[in-house]
Structures are given as C-alpha cells and as structure tokens.
Amino acid sequence: MIKRKMSSFTKTIFFLWVLSTKLSDGRIFTFKMHHLFSEPVKNWSNSTGKLSHWPAKGSFEYYAVLAHRDRLLRGRKLSDINATLSFSDGNSTFRISSLGFLHYTTVQLGTPGVKFMVALDTGSDLFWVPCDCTKCAPTEGTTYASDFELSIYDPKGSSTSKRVTCNSSLCAHRNQCLGTFSSCPYIVSYMSAQTSTSGVLLEDVLHLTTEDGHAELVEAYVTFGCGQVQSGSFLDVAAPNGLFGLGMEKIAVPSILSQEGLTANSFSMCFGHDGIGRISFGDKGSPDQEETPFNLNPPHPTYNITITQIRVGTAIIVGDITALFDSGTSFTYLVDPTYSKLAENFHSQAQDRRRPPDTRIPFEYCYDMSPDANATLIPSMSLKMKGGSDFPVYDPIIVISTQSKLVYCLAVIRSTELNIIGQNLMTGYRVVFDRERFVLGWKKYDCYDVEETNTSEVESYAVSTPPPVSAGIHNYSTPESTSKDIRNTDSGSCVPLRTCHLHISLLAFFGVVSIYMHMAYMA
To answer: What positions does UniProt annotate as the active site of this protein (predicted)?
Structure first.
C-alpha cells in the first residue's frame, strides 16, 4: 500500500518538476524597432556626417534608395550590384554603405549595462558588437538620445564578462584555436561585397524586461562576438554598433534564450503601416493565427516557405515556388516566370494609365493615379501557402508623390535567382518565426494596440513616427505621431546568474514537494 502511494507520489512530483521548469517559457521580451528612415536614425546619421542627402519620404528617390539597398545587400542574386543610383536634383551618387540594414534596436549588455544600437538580421546568426577594436566603425560624437547611444564593449569593464574557450560547443572555428582552453575565434562574412566581422567569442549578460502586467528584470547570459575587426560596409553606418543575428543556429540569441529556459524558441516581428515596429522574443503568436511550415535545409536552415498559389484580382497563378521570408528586405522579389505572370495579370486588371519606364526606380508597372482613385480599383493580391493558409497582401503597391500628381507601382520586382517576400508584404501583420515547431505564423495586427497573446500582454511604446515603408491608397496620408505611455511598474531585480530564472520555479517546486511529503506521511 505504502509502495503504491509512493509510486504515485513520485510520478506526481516528476510531473510538477516538468511543469515548473516550463513556467519560464511564457516570458516574452520585447524591443522597440527603428526603421532605417525613422527620425531617430535620421538624426543619428546626420550627426555622423556620413549622410549628406536624405530622400523625401514617398518620393522616387526614397523608394529607389530602399530598392538599391536590397539589391546590393543581396548581391547578384537579385540583380546587377554595379548599378548606380543618382538623384534627380544633381546630388552625388548615394552609396549603399551610407544606409545599411533595414531595422535597428537598442540592447543593453554587461555589468554595468552598456547600450548598443544593433542592426537586426534574420539572414545571419551571430550577435556581435565592436570590442577591443583594431578596425571598427567610429563611435565618437555620434550619440543621439538614449535609444541611440553608440558604444564599444570593454570585457575588462564588465564584471560578468567571460571568455568562451575552444572546447565550447558553440565554437565553430576550433581548427584555428591555439589550444583547448584558448579563446574561441570567429569570423563571419556577409553577402554584401567584402563585408565581414572577426574577433573572439565572449559571454555576458543581456538585460531583458518582460512586457506584461508584472514586469520582471532578467539578466540572461548570452554568447556573442567581440568584434575586433570589421570590413566593408560595417566600417560605415551599415551596422555602426553591431549586429543582432536572428537565424536558426545554436549561437543565435533566440536559441540561447530558449536553451537557458528563459523563453520559448520563437520570436515575432510586427510592422505597422508607418514603419513603427516591435520584435518580441518568446512570442509564439496566438492559437488563431495562420501558419505554414518552413522548408528546412539541415546544414543551413533559413526562413524559407512554399507558396502554392498567387491570386491577383480575379486571376489565379498556380504552381509551387519557394521563397525566403526576409524582414530585412524592403520589397518583394520574384523570379520568372512567376514574376511575369503576376505583373501581367496585375496590369490587365489595372484601370489607370501605365507610365513609361522610369530608370530611377526598379518597379516596372507604375500608373498615374486617377483623381477618383480608391483601393477597390487596385487589383488585390493574396498568397496561398503550403498547408492551405491564406496570406492576404494589404499593400501590393507603393504610392509615390510627384510635383504634379500621385503615382502608384506594383511593389514586386523581377529577381534573377531568389524569391524573397520582403517587409512590404508583411506590413500590417505580426509575423511569428516559431523555431520550435518550424512554422511561420501571421495574424493581422496593429502595432500600436495592446493585444493579448497566448502567453502575455505586449506593451505599446512611446515612439516618434518614421516615414512609411509601403503606402497603399487607403493609408497614403502620413499618420500623425502615435504614442502611448510606458506603464510604470515596480520591478524587482535579478542577480546575473544563468539559473536565476529558475529561482521562483524551484521555490514553488520544493513547496509542493513539502506538501506532498506531509500528505504521504499523514496517509
């Protein structure tokens, strides 16, 4: 009798232990994202003296710069990377190195915490910051407000900094190690020409705050690159203070946070119509979101999906195509014959006069907007994904303002090799990159609203409105600045231990164990 009771007791304890260790999966850590052309980034860039000309939002130059940046960062897989870009007002050619990545966020690293403005990149894995610099981008005199402090990481200046040795499972270049316990070197090359970072791996605390009704401070140990040598566009303002890789490899921060039990291995990105955004680590979306599986290539997994059908107005284009879901690319790129079929069907249903080709922009199908234009006159678009879920496209066009009239263009560009679903088609959604279930999720979402997710409430932030990235007829007017106060909460602190997140779970666990032992004894 006692043996049976103890067996039941053991199973119950095991269940409670598993449950307690999973409690941390409910945490969501949210960061504010700044688009490349947001006012804070603009002001920072002007302060560096690197950017002599800033294109007016909604102009030909504005969209030309974004598209030119896409092509150069993706290299010849999109188009000829040697194409030049000049402005109609006689300004000098605008260099891609003066632009860089599409979104930035500010993170705090080390003890005491130091802020870094890092570029976000779903196409790479490593998180790195300038550190013990031999060759880095200049940071002197480039501070703009608290969100855009530029720093150089000092391992000796952080009491929680640790070396990552060559026997670490995250050390990918052991063949270059001097010994088992020497510092692990790293080098990462990027697709844009002659752009790379190299140095050694370190470990330190990343400062996080949960965004629910009971804000909790968490200091998570993460592995990152101490970027000693940068080359190419990293020496300009492409990634002036480091880069935050969001890929699927083990060394990526989302993977590390999940491995440590701090969050679910998933994150979401939210893109508003005016470019305001948020990235939320641990967010698995909501039960009613649409989903499609990733096409996994085990050696180098990416956020690649399959589109089985494209609807343009009343026309349907059938045929499986694989495409990279890339939030770091401004526009959407399709190879032939898919591109031609989509564009021709769009054109056959458009009711406005098509404009002659304009060498300033890469969009082939542009139209003069009629005075009585409205969204119902523009052919709609929707993607059907593998698994049957629909992905309605809220902004298949961009609207360009000229001196005399408005022009709209199909915001899809012909590609030479890669199919890419860019940020313009993601606008209006919360896009979930679920790396546990290997699915992409999406749901219509207003980045300004506070919405209950499946695990916690996501806060809105006080932000200034950046220029629109993609503007349809229904939202052409630039929205007024939207701001919501950050809720002031009394937050407890957490000591910088990699197991601090288990503290509450362990207390709860041992409390339950005590109760059950007492019950077993009384029985």
So the answer is: 121, 326
Instruction: With beta carbons less than 8 A apart as the criterion, state whether 284 and 264 touch.
Output: yes
**pLDDT recorded at residue 447:** 78
Give the tens place of pLDDT for each residue, 309-339. 999 999 999 999 999 998 888 899 999 999 9
Res. 509 pLDDT band, cuts 50 70 90 = very low
Per-residue pLDDT tens digits for 374-393:
666 789 999 999 999 999 99
- Nearest residue to 255 (alpha-carbon basis) of 214, 220, 307: 220
Angle between helices 503-522 and 2-21 (to 10 degrees): 170
d(C-alpha 12, C-alpha 7), whole Å? 9
Range list of H helices, 204-304: 253-259
Distance CA 440, CA 58 (A): 30
Rounded Cα distance between 317 and 196, Å, is 40
CA angle (60 as vertex; 57, 62 as ends), nearest 5: 40
Distance separating alpha carbons of residues 97 and 236, to the nearest angstrom: 6
Residue with tokens 């809105």: 460
Counting residues of the chain whose pLDDT is more than 70, the rounded percentage is 67
CB neighbours of 227 closer than 8 A, spacing ≥ 6? Answer: 128, 129, 130, 131, 133, 136, 197, 198, 199, 242
Catalytically active residues, by annotation: 121, 326
